[in-house]
Amino acid sequence: MKRAGADNRYYGKFFLAMTVSIVLTIAVLSVILYVHFERISLKQAYDGTMERLEQTTQEASVMSVTAATFAKQIYSDPHVANLLNFPDADAIEVSTAVKQLNNYRETSPFIDSIYVYNAKARTFYVSSDMSVPAVFAEDEFYDQEMADMVTRLNEFETLMPIPRKLMIEGLAGNIAEKQRDTYTFLLYDTLTRSGRKNVVVVNIKETQLHKLIDGSLTNDATNSFVIDAAGKLVSSSWKYPMLSDMRSTPYISRVLEAPEGTGYFAEQVDGVKSLVTYTEPDYLGWRYIRIVPYRQITAQITDMRNKTIVIAGSILLAGLALSYFVSRRLYAGISHKLTRLGKLEAENREALAARRSEWLKSLLKDGGDTDGLRVKRNFERYGIPLEPQGDFRVVLLAIDDYGGFSEQYTARDRRLIRFGLQNIAQEIMLASGLSAVAVDVSEDHAACLIQERQPGAMDEGRLSEIWPEIQASARAFLKLSITLTVSGRGEGIAVVNALYDSALEATYYRLFEGDGAVIRAADVEAKKAKTYDYPAGKEKQLLEELMLGRMTQVKQLFADIIDDATNYSYMSFQLAITRLSFALQNTLRAMNQHHAADGELAVPSLHLYTNDRVQSLDELKGNYMTLFAAVGQRLEARKRGRNDDLPDRIKALIESRYADPDLSLDMLSEELGLSATYLGRVFKQHTYQTILGYISEVRMNRVRSLLEETNDPVGEIAERAGFANNPYFYKAFKKVNGVTPAEYRKNRRQRQEEDEDAILA
């Protein structure tokens, strides 16, 4: 069996080595040939381009010579001489000379226009293909750039091309064009020193030179153009207009840095790797440049390289397949046994990991076996780098927003993420001088048992640097927010369970600290030591404001009570929120007893100890703020429904029960099922008087009627009107009417008698 295994390994290695050797040989030869052929292609492309550029240079020179010859012929033409030398040429002479200029222009396809400038007359005589006058005064000439140039002729060389743009927008006969690219040739008397001179101007079309350079005016993969010594375009290009400044272009800068000679180089041009070929400056100082995409030059070589790669890849795949099948056939005898051994080994590892995890969880949660020797043996057995007699701390890594975490990942993925979190924590702690072992203890958190590996590694200052690093790594690598709770320091394995319990209790304080916090058990113990007194007075005030519908005050009082409770133990906070919730629920039920049709509003569920518990204090407050907002909306709806007729209902009750001496604001409040304060505020808003004032008014009106209509005693009348206190009645009556009840009766009857006598008379 051993011999067969050795043979199998030998054959597999042999076939693999042969395949790799063949592929490497082909690859090396391909690279050498590719580089060599690439150089040859670049040289051939350069030679061909240079031949074309040199021919273009000659043709451009011919064009310049031809333009200069035309200018000289025009200058010496006797008909044109009349325009140049005499400022007062007559119409016949002008017409004859212009016809001669037209003949010169029409004999050459690349002449755009011809100007003859008479310096004394300051007049331009024009031959052009556009329908423009033949004679222009200098200040009315459409080519104002030329009008400016003739005033400073000494700045320009005679019969040398001047690249420029001829502005023709809006001229007669011109519809679409705004400007033309031209080369202007000036011929003037260089010996004369006067300020203004007679000039013959020949404008050559740039398109003619462009055709010679590029062969086309359309968008093409290749691009040829001409630049001057300053890096400015003196020919147009389908990419850049004439006179564009190209100095900032990297490949033009590289050409300008080579002032002499010709050459070529590969460069990125407009994002495309290209071959840039350039000539040496000609007698005009112009350089001819041609851009050819690199892929266009190396297309055939690239195709050869790709074919070579495909062939080499095919050989490699075939060799690998042959190696695979031969090795598989040779290994067929032991493949099954190797697979079985691998499975057994994996199962053994998984079983060991499961036993290790269960033992650690038992140690943390239940205390487990705390015998030092047995614990040490288990540490060694499970590869745990801790000492039973050393100092310990327990760190819990709690996953924030566990509900969202559960919805996002499957159970298997959640286990893998928790495993990754444990590895991150262990690696960071190990790098910080700690010995650590991590274990899953529940669905939403893992625990780390840590110990010093280097002196001082468990000091608070050192540890405070580790926790943010763990949290940041969890966010970066696992997209996970975690809260850390850290126990105090304890000596010996026997305290591990107590340390775990204290850290677990501290996790509940995440509600106060928020997600991503670091909570220390020592801080929790300090809060537990403080005595909490429930603010019953604030609770009463909150409930009163709730019944009055003052939701702003309700929300502020609720926040004050909750914020104050966070300064104490979690149990105190739970008791406070439970008591307050119970009081709120009872108040809401009392408020709804007269409006059952509206349905009962429920106080939010708390879930303070379950996995789906409220995650933060803001979330808890938000739930209650939503409740208060709903209560406020319901109260406002009720008010809108009854505020309009409430004053009339109050008046009707007062007018029907005014005789009852117990009639009061509290009686009306109980009768209508609304608070006394609310009744008083609504009544005053609508009637501009108080309810007690209206009761007194109704009673006083009844007293006055009885005094006028009956002879009953005043005390009896007061009692029948609802005044139970005679001294108060007399005082109130006199204050309102200005007289006592007896005087009021006497005065009213005396007035009635006077009225009757007046009627009889």
Automatic annotation (TrEMBL):
<keyword id="KW-0805">Transcription regulation</keyword>
<keyword id="KW-0238">DNA-binding</keyword>
<protein>
    <submittedName>
        <fullName>AraC family transcriptional regulator</fullName>
    </submittedName>
</protein>
<keyword id="KW-0472">Membrane</keyword>
<keyword id="KW-1133">Transmembrane helix</keyword>
<keyword id="KW-0804">Transcription</keyword>
<dbReference type="InterPro" id="IPR018062">
    <property type="entry name" value="HTH_AraC-typ_CS"/>
</dbReference>
<dbReference type="Pfam" id="PF12833">
    <property type="entry name" value="HTH_18"/>
</dbReference>
<dbReference type="InterPro" id="IPR009057">
    <property type="entry name" value="Homeodomain-like_sf"/>
</dbReference>
<dbReference type="InterPro" id="IPR020449">
    <property type="entry name" value="Tscrpt_reg_AraC-type_HTH"/>
</dbReference>
<keyword id="KW-0812">Transmembrane</keyword>
<dbReference type="InterPro" id="IPR018060">
    <property type="entry name" value="HTH_AraC"/>
</dbReference>
<feature type="transmembrane region" description="Helical">
    <location>
        <begin position="14"/>
        <end position="35"/>
    </location>
</feature>
<feature type="domain" description="HTH araC/xylS-type">
    <location>
        <begin position="648"/>
        <end position="747"/>
    </location>
</feature>
<feature type="transmembrane region" description="Helical">
    <location>
        <begin position="309"/>
        <end position="327"/>
    </location>
</feature>
